[in-house]
Design a protein that fits this description.
Elements lengths: L1 H17 L2 E9 L4 E8 L7 H16 L5 E4 L12
Parallel strand pairs: 2-3
Antiparallel strand pairs: 1-2
Length: 85
């Protein structure tokens, strides 16, 4: 599962980099299907980063990687976590 998540993120990465950001895989919990990523660069201060994470990255990973249930931002506290769309 982790290898497929990594390969899928490599497909997504150029679009995020085009906007001045980047994305890095920080962990995959294969039991729960939770993927933890870190958005960096312009994504850190971008108000649309939670939308990018949920409507973009999470949607694509759920579609392409069987077993993915949720994508979380690395280091986000529960109050900072975006609401699933």
């Amino acid at each position: 599962m982790e290898d497929l998540v990594r390969r899928t993120l490599e497909v997504i990465r150029p679009a995020i980099q085009a906007d001045g950001g980047d994305i890095f895989l920080r962990g995959v919990d294969e039991e729960t299907g939770v993927v933890t990523v870190e958005l960096t660069g312009a994504c850190v201060s971008c108000p649309a980063s939670s939308l990018t994470l949920k409507a973009g990255v999470e949607r694509i990973l759920k579609d392409r990687v069987p077993g993915v249930t949720l994508v979380e931002q690395y280091g986000a506290t529960p109050s900072e976590s975006p609401v699933s769309l």
